[in-house]
Amino acid sequence: MSVKTDTVAAAKASAQAVPRQASRAGTVERPSRADRAALGRDARTVAPLESQAEFQPGPGRDPVGLLLGQAASRVPELVPVRHGRMLVSPFTFYRGAALPMAADLAGTPAAGLRVQLCGDAHLSNFGAFASPERNLVFDVNDFDETLPGPFEWDVKRLAASLTVAGRDNGFPAKACRKMALAAAEGYRTAMRGFAEQPFLDVWYAHLDVEPAIRELRSQIKAKRLKAFEKLLAKAHTKDSTSALGKLTAEVDGQRRIISDPPTIVPIEEVFADIQADEIYEQLRSVLSKYRRSLQTDRRHLLNEFTLVHVARKVVGVGSVGTRAWIALMDAADGVEPLVLQAKEAQPSVLAEYAGRSQYKNEGERVVAGQHLMQAQSDIFLGWTRVAAPDGADRDFYVRQLRDWKFSVPIELMLPVGLTQYARMCGWTLARAHARSGDRIALAAYLGGSARFDNAIADFAETYADQNGLDYAAFQAAVKSGKAEAITEI
């Protein structure tokens, strides 16, 4: 039996050891705070805090093979683009290598304390975006791989990403370790704080972004501060109106999305052999199904918009090759735009290792996980299933494109600034986990000392070393012709 199977099975047995008593009213009584704290402390016998540092490559480990295997479900002509983006640096490789790391994490010790995982919690998947109240909020912002699983997996992916990114930036080893420690400490201390709060307070908790960003400003390299300020200012303008000016042009009196292959390709160019009228009729049906996944007030809002034009869009690093579409919609003669992004949801990379999703639609899985983990989500977040032109049924989730979205420019940060950012990410991840997991048991497991923090930092260093080896193996695969890559200009 694998380490992962041993630890998770033992933790489940431990969880089942706390019985729930039936009350006089016939309902089930929840374990007391004391019982939940005891469960967390007992989990240390399953996975001692120091064991969280452990990582050994498994026998027959083949990260390149796993990555190349993902091409089977992706758009063939976009797979080389994905590979090209992963080749840019060890950090961009890490961003795209969620599947190999999921396989690796399955063999590491786990305490059996499960939460709703992001599944790909590297530091670039945290950022700021507009809340429904039009405030700038900071949160996890990518949920393609979300699934319930061991809480440690998200923490380890975050910490290792900081070490990899720090090395890419040329930071000394001591600075990289401080960043990983800050993420783990931020997570641990936040979870202990949430354990003392009423659950509704935890549910409504959010990070006050503006003061945090002001502090980060002071940590940007002086000569690059102007570039950072420009990026932050642009965040408040990134909405459907700005997308209209950047992504579209007027053609024969009608607004159309500009072709910029391979990143953006209008649907008429993707399906040249299919009549446009037939495609748009199908798309209107898709939007109608998607509407049904929204709250009633948001359905009413969406009904004010009509479909104008659609294009395929290449997004991210690891997601490249999955099908993603942007839909230009409008409410009034081309002056009230709404730009939606429909992104294909394939099975989570965690599914083989943490268990299959309870949802039959992978888009619904993504939306449900996002709602559970985020303090506030996009008002147009929904899901649907599409009967594709090639005859396959594909699941999608839908949200607004570019709604005040802002990510800290990692390459511009000084070590002290990235350390502060790591702490913000740790706090945010803890809040997301506290909403779905047992925050009291988690806090008791993590404890008041820095033992967990140091173990996670040790893991981050070891895994960053492994990531460097995997990156070199991937480079060799491209050089030998085993994998094809396209370098974008």
Summarize the structure in short.
Helix content is 48%, strand content 14%. With 489 residues, the chain is α+β, with helices and mostly antiparallel strands. It has 2 domains: 3-111 and 122-223 and 413-480, no CATH class; 240-400, no CATH class.
What does it look like?
This protein has 489 residues and is α+β, with helices and mostly antiparallel strands. The chain folds into two domains: 3-111 and 122-223 and 413-480, no CATH class; 240-400, no CATH class. The protein is built from 20 helices and 13 strands. It has helices spanning 3-16, 33-46, 63-69, 79-86, 90-96, 98-105, 151-168, 173-195, 199-204, 209-217, 225-235, 240-247, 267-270, 276-291, 296-302, 351-354, 362-373, 415-436, 439-446, 451-480, and strands spanning 114-117, 126-130, 136-140, 147-150, 207-208, 248-251, 254-257, 264-266, 306-313, 324-330, 337-344, 382-387, 393-400. The protein has a six-stranded antiparallel sheet, sandwiched between helices. The N and C termini lie far apart (48 Å).
User: Whole-number average pLDDT?
Assistant: 87
Which strand order do you get reading across the main beta sheet? 8-9-10-11-13-12
Largest sheet: 6 strands, antiparallel
> Quick one: overall form?
globular
List its salient traits:
disordered N terminus; 48% helix; six-stranded antiparallel β-sheet; single chain; 14% strand; 489 residues; alpha+beta; 13 strands
Topology:
Elements: H1 3-16, H2 33-46, H3 63-69, H4 79-86, H5 90-96, H6 98-105, E1 114-117, E2 126-130, E3 136-140, E4 147-150, H7 151-168, H8 173-195, H9 199-204, E5 207-208, H10 209-217, H11 225-235, H12 240-247, E6 248-251, E7 254-257, E8 264-266, H13 267-270, H14 276-291, H15 296-302, E9 306-313, E10 324-330, E11 337-344, H16 351-354, H17 362-373, E12 382-387, E13 393-400, H18 415-436, H19 439-446, H20 451-480
Helix pairs in contact: 1-2, 2-19, 5-7, 7-8, 7-18, 7-20, 8-18, 8-19, 8-20, 10-18
